[in-house]
Amino acid sequence: xxxxxxxxxxxxxxxxxxxxxxxxxxxxxxxxxxxxxxxxxxxxxxxxxxxxxxxxxxxxxxxxxxxxxxxxxxxxxxxxxxxxxxxxxxxxxxxxxxxxxxxxxxxxxxxxxxxxxxxxxxxxxxxxxxxxxxxxxxx
Length: 139
Description:
Layout: E1 6-7, E2 17-24, H1 36-56, H2 62-85, E3 88-94, H3 102-122, H4 125-133, H5 135-138
Antiparallel strand pairs: 1-2, 2-3
Helix pairs in contact: 1-2, 2-3
């Protein structure tokens, strides 16, 4: 495929979905193009922080481990493209949003799971125990 060329694997959905080959030298949504060296450096730092965090994380924090694992895998995938090619290959094209790849999806999913986990564990323990035992209904 040529850069910016699209194919339509599901013809009935051609107005909504395509496979479009793009060479993204920037970050998400094509922002900050031509800053490849900086993003390589940034990705290495992010990967190191995630690896450090995973080693220090208690074993019972499964959701956080999955979230960090997704973000780590996505960051490593995009880093490999960036080092090997000088850009990231994006190809998933829902016509209503910017083109992205599976690594981007893993990063976004990991960050979302991490946010949900932080929100959930940040809730006061008393409220959680009251709501789970039904004590609120009695008071």
